[in-house]
Design goal:
5 helices; about 220 residues; Rossmann fold; two-stranded antiparallel sheet; alpha/beta
Length: about 220
């Protein structure tokens, strides 16, 4: 599959995401925030960083970049879209996912090897995992606390749209320890931890994040 990785002004992890895409067996295609087309890609990754300097609100300006018009339309047609950290924030600002990401409960930037449980392996990005699998993936954020009203949280839980949940200490104060969610169709996933930093034994936390990228192969033939 051809997987587009978008670079916004202030992105930090687009090269890591491209590498993870290649290790996962796909072709990585570099996309720019000002692009007006997606260059024929089959899926899109919105990487971590501080797009547009996080001015106004994390992801709020990126939501109006030209490429996001194309991403929103493609997601509506079923294209797999993964938002990692800042990408998760952009997906919420774009209303592709509900809720919002706010300042960490402890008011500090954190960088830890975080234990997670995969709650939903039926999305385009998680089918390589067993449901309930416990993994360790790098987590680094300052505004990573997921919040939503009670009705939305109950709906996400009831529809099985909580993709991943923090285990042990809740590092950023996310409601119900939510680390990632999906849309109703399961093609759009937002994840606060960074699976692209957990794809090789040589560096990072091992290979527990690789499944987010190998899952696309199964999605292609679903």
């Amino acid at each position: 599959m051809k997987v587009g990785v978008v670079t916004f002004p202030g992105s930090l992890d687009e090269v890591d995401a491209q590498r993870a895409v290649r290790i996962g067996g796909h072709e990585a295609v570099a996309l720019w925030h000002g692009d007006h087309d997606l260059r024929g890609v089959d899926a899109v990754v919105l990487p971590g960083g501080f797009s547009y300097g996080d001015y106004l609100r994390c992801g709020a300006i990126s939501r109006f970049s030209p490429v996001m018009t194309e991403v929103i339309e493609a997601a509506g047609r079923g294209m797999p879209v993964l938002g990692i950290c800042n990408g998760f924030q952009i997906l919420c600002e774009s209303h592709l996912l509900p809720g919002a990401l706010i300042r960490n409960e402890r008011q500090k930037f954190l960088c830890v090897d975080q234990r997670l449980r995969i709650e939903n392996n039926r999305t385009a990005w998680t089918s390589s995992y067993d449901e309930g699998a416990e993994v360790v993936i790098a987590l680094k954020n300052g505004e990573g606390s997921f919040v939503a009203d009670t009705e939305t949280l109950d709906r996400l839980e009831g529809e099985g749209r909580v993709v991943a949940r923090y285990l042990g200490d809740n590092p950023n104060g996310s409601l119900r320890a939510i680390a990632g969610i999906s849309n109703e169709r399961g093609n759009v996933v937002g994840l606060m931890p960074h699976p692209e930093h957990s794809v090789e034994d040589l560096t990072g936390t091992g290979t527990d994040g690789l499944g987010f990228f190998t899952s696309l192969a199964a999605a292609a033939f679903a």
